Amino acid sequence: MEDAIQPYYSRKMDNWSIINSVEINNGKVFANGRLVHDTENDFTLASKELYKKYSKAYIKFFKMDALSKLGFLTAEILLKDFNLENIDMNEIALVVGNSNATKDTDLKYLQTMREQPSPAVFVYTLPNILVGEICIRHGFKGQNVFYISGKFDEEELYENIELLINNSTTDYVIGGWVDFINPNDYKSILYLIGKDSKSSKFAINNLKRLNNIK
Amino acid sequence: MSKRVDIVSDHLISALGSGSEENFNKLLNNRTGITMHNNGKYSDNMLPLGSINDEWLSQWAYNNELPEGFTRFEKLSILSISEALKDTSIDISSEDTLLVLSTTKGNVDLIEYPEMHNKLDLWYSAHQIAGYFKAKNRPRLISNACISGVVALMYAQWQLKEGRYKHAVVVGADTLSKFVVSGFESFMSLSSEICKPFDKNRDGLTIGEAAATMVLSTQEKGKVSIVKGATANDANHISGPSRTGEGLFQAIKHTLDNEDIQIDFISAHGTATPYNDDMESIAITRSGLNNVPVNGFKGYVGHTLGAAGIVEVIYSLWSMYHNKIIKTFGYNEFGVVEKVNIIDRNITKELNNVLKTASGFGGCNSALLLKKNG
């Protein structure tokens, strides 16, 4: 296999690091692998708790479906201490995946479809809407890739981020997994990837180390 | 180090028929595949839709002894992949070949049947399709609203140009369903007539269905290659296009990469909603491409969602093979905010560099550059 490992795509990754990571895992919130919030409440209540604790007045939050709320909150915590000044918004990309697409919202839309189809629910039946919500919130105008996979796999995420970095002028990538099955079964993890020599290297083992999703 | 990614084969099944040549002949004759539907299957209202004739599918399944157990969405994808691979030596079950799927809603037509809910996961369909072809590598699946097809092609090009795989089979598919049709109806975004991209009187889109496949390779040669693609977000609204065309402008800018390249034709998204087409005219003008011939293909087969990017790249590809720009079906009178060059009759032109664009819900935009090989 002449093409098994090509220096072309490993070379550029040397300078890239995981600046921050946040995971929300069925009521537990981890920042850079450390538990920072724990609740017994289901997502309906937990999302309100997290919004109060970590977000500012942002009325659009309450219009979002559960999947977008989960992605939005994860990004709020991920970026809360990150200074976005002097950053080119056109070069902040999002690479996000999940397994259940928008199944929870699809079933909610099905109910409205049988009575009065709701455009406000229908618009959330695309998984990349959560990426759009994060972009609107923070003004990110970079590249977007939303992928679907059977389960969260750090190697797949790494590959997708690496491909994007190699093939664009992106400065920062917010990459990860946002998956919502029901208010008692949901998981998300987002990593902020950029060129920052003080942070741990952008590598599969570091993505794994920071993650409790099993 | 990076390798040239050629398009070596393609196939699509749409309202215009099965096969790229069959489709393109109808485009050349400016025949639409969109028909009026009033049987209540997808809507209580009479609606134009770009539907696939199920007889073509059953005949193919019978002739090819397709086993039971696949959904309509999966069968259409399998049909398209099989036909696209027919005249190539590319082995989809080889470790050199990657399968990339693009869809927005997969088997969503089954959501009304609770006993079918185990089939709703998009990755379930990906595994069904990959399993049928005994694909060795894990299939990759892109679901990025209406830019999914363009993103899947861009993603496959990334994989190949770095030499991670030698070949990629990229399939985009979405089927008609009450779920999707009622959703767009609730948005008041469907036209009661066949959609009229870029027209003064355009009043909404027409939904269609399709399965479309492109086979890419760095080893086999094709007449056209994929040079580059890019995406960008408007960061403006989840369902409304940007008023400044910023995201699409950025996607085009990143795709053309400041290279001094003459674009001969733009295959636009052209959904025929008032805001989308205006936004595209703004982005194209801001990109300095306002004199370049632009068309929209959605008057022929409708908006095929996750398939649309691949369907329209195949139509663009055949336009390049024949040096013909196809008329924008449904377009009569100029009616977008910026003066772009909408093609209202078939024209003959040497097509060397072609730009495909697409935009979608979630504020996403994309562009892809195709180049004829000398």
Features:
heterodimer; A: 214 residues; alpha+beta; Peroxisomal Thiolase, Chain A, domain 1; eight-stranded mixed beta sheet; 25% strand; disordered N terminus; B: 374 residues; alpha/beta; 2 domains; twelve-stranded mixed beta sheet; two-stranded antiparallel ribbon; 10 helices; 16 strands; 30% helix
Walk me through this protein's architecture.
The complex is a heterodimer of chains A (214) and B (374). Chain A has 214 residues and is α+β, with helices and mostly antiparallel strands. Chain A has one domain: Thiolase/Chalcone synthase (Peroxisomal Thiolase, Chain A, domain 1, 3-Layer(aba) Sandwich), CATH 3.40.47. Chain A is built from eight helices and eight strands. Chain A has helices at 7-11, 43-54, 66-79, 103-115, 119-122, 129-138, 154-166, 204-209, and strands at 17-25, 28-31, 34-38, 92-98, 144-148, 172-182, 185-194, 200-201. In chain A, strands 1, 2, 3, 4, 5, 6, 7 and 8 form an eight-stranded mixed β-sheet that branches. The relative contact order of chain A is 0.23. Residues 1-8 of chain A have low confidence and may be disordered. The two termini of chain B are 20 Å apart. The longest helix of chain B has 15 residues, at 72-86. Chain B folds into two domains: 5-217, Peroxisomal Thiolase, Chain A, domain 1 (3-Layer(aba) Sandwich); 224-372, Thiolase/Chalcone synthase (Peroxisomal Thiolase, Chain A, domain 1, 3-Layer(aba) Sandwich), CATH 3.40.47. Chain B is of the alpha/beta class and 374 residues long. The interface between A and B is large, with 53 and 59 residues.
Largest sheet of chain B: 12 strands, mixed
Provide the structure class of chain B.
Answer: alpha/beta
Radius of gyration of chain A from CA coordinates: 17 Å
What's the end-to-end separation of chain A, in Å? 32 Å
CATH level-1 class of chain A: Alpha Beta
Helix amount of chain B, in percent? Answer: 25-40%
Q: How big is the Rg of chain B?
A: 19 Å
| CATH C-level class of the largest domain in chain B | Alpha Beta
CATH homology-level superfamily of chain A: Thiolase/Chalcone synthase
| Biggest sheet details of chain A | 8 strands, mixed
Q: Quote the average pLDDT of chain A.
A: 93
Mean pLDDT of chain B: 97
State the separation between the terminal residues of chain B, measured CA to CA. Answer: 20 Å
